Amino acid sequence: MDFFETVRKRHSVRRFQPRELEQEKLDTLLETINAAPSAGDLQAYEVIIVRELQTKEALAEASYSQEFVAEAPLVLVFCADHLLSASKYGKRGVELYSIQDATIAAAYCQLAATALGLATVWVGAFDPKAAAAAIDTPDHVTPVAIMPLGYPAEEPMPTPRRSLRDMVREEKF
Questions:
Q1: pLDDT tens digit sequence for 100-130
Q2: The sheet that has 45-50: what strands, in order across it?
Q3: What is the pTM of this model?
Q4: List of domains in the chain
């Protein structure tokens, strides 16, 4: 699948087949995540792989009872490592760059998953303290995206997009 087709085919999927993900595909996803750009090439993020049902259920509860989180064969939690970014960028690294790093990695993951015939959904609605407790992260590592992952059991219809005219503005000096 070419890149632009991958972008067009990516949709949020909330129903997954019970089929396990092949290690080779997971490795490809992780390598793609590792290739994502980051501030100062620090990669100020961690990716937590969750397979255990009990932990997935805790993440679903932390996600305000979005049960599909627990139903996915695998869940990735993208976390900002504030201390790593702060080591080079101080307060700006804590408040912005580490969060951007984690979200860029998550976006790369979504596109790679689509290219591999997998499906994801970006879960941003969650209690960060409850999610952190579920995956046992230290205080300087904050979950920023929960991503259920697997083979799709649905094919959502594309959602309407804003027109470029409404979204893009060119500055005129």
A1: 999 999 999 999 999 999 999 999 999 999 9
A2: 45-50, 74-81, 141-150, 119-120
A3: 0.94
A4: 3-151 (3.40.109.10)
